[in-house]
Every structure is written in structure tokens, then in C-alpha cells.
Write a structure and sequence with these properties.
Helix content: 40-55%
CATH superfamily of the largest domain: ACT domain
Mean pLDDT: 82
Strand content: 25-35%
CATH class of the largest domain: Alpha Beta
Largest sheet: 4 strands, antiparallel
Number of helices: 4
Radius of gyration: 27 Å
CATH topology of the largest domain: Alpha-Beta Plaits
Shape: rod-shaped
InterPro entries: MASH1/Ascl1a-like
Order of helices and strands: HHEEHEEH
């Protein structure tokens, strides 16, 4: 190999490295910025489902409510508890936790009257009206 060929190879390699560095810098700038993206798409990508999430599970006379929302769409926990009480539930336990920009609510309740019970679909509809 001649010196000229070695020089050409070194020059081409340096150009490849420079292009790679430029791409990595752009990627770093993009990842570091707080981008205003479509929240629905962003939430779906991160969690695998679109926010807010409302899940109501009915087991005999017990009712478990799971709510997941982002921190921008806030609602008062007492409103959710109020809906449950209006539908004939006694709240046994209510918890929430904040992870990143997501808020997770879990509420355990039971029917005040086991003869009347709880209608999970009606609770779901009312919570959906409140949150969504």
C-alpha cells in the first residue's frame, strides 16, 4: 500500500467518525430537550395503553378501582370516593402514588348492603365522565 492510499483511508475513516459524532450530538440534544409531543402517542409508547386508565373490578360484594392519569390531568380523590359512596360503596382503603409524571390511584371498597350490591358498569361510566 502506498502512502497516498493510507492517507485516503485515514481521511475516509475520519469523515465517518465526524458524521457519527454529529448524529450522536443531534440525538443527545433531541433526547435532552423537553419536547411537546402528542401526549396520547407518548403515553401509549411508554405504558402500552392510553391515559387515563379506568379499571373497575367487582368480586362478590367488593369493588376495586384502579385509575392511572398523568400529572397534567388531575382530579380530586375525594370526587372518586364520593362517586363510590353515591353508588352504595363503603370505601375501605384508598391509596395513590406518583411515579414520574403518572399518578396511580387504588381504591378498595365494599357494598354497604350485600343484598343490593354494586354495579361496576355504572361506577365505571361515572368515573369515565369525571376523568376523561
Amino acid at each position: 500500500m502506498t502512502k497516498y492510499n493510507l492517507f485516503d483511508q485515514a481521511h475516509a475513516y475520519i469523515l465517518q467518525l465526524k458524521e457519527r459524532i454529529d448524529r450522536l450530538k443531534k440525538k443527545k440534544e433531541f433526547d435532552g430537550k423537553d419536547h411537546k409531543r402528542d401526549r396520547g402517542t407518548d403515553d401509549t409508547i411508554k405504558l402500552g395503553f392510553k391515559l387515563p386508565v379506568i379499571e373497575v373490578r367487582n368480586q362478590e360484594s367488593n369493588l376495586e378501582v384502579l385509575l392511572i392519569s398523568d400529572s397534567e390531568k388531575r382530579f380530586a380523590l375525594h370526587q372518586v370516593i364520593g362517586i363510590l359512596e353515591e353508588e352504595g360503596a363503603e370505601v375501605l382503603n384508598a391509596n395513590f402514588s406518583i411515579v414520574g409524571d403518572k399518578i396511580f390511584y387504588t381504591i378498595h371498597s365494599k357494598a354497604i348492603s350485600s343484598r343490593i350490591g354494586l354495579e361496576a358498569s355504572k361506577v365505571y361510566e361515572r368515573l369515565h365522565q369525571l376523568i376523561a
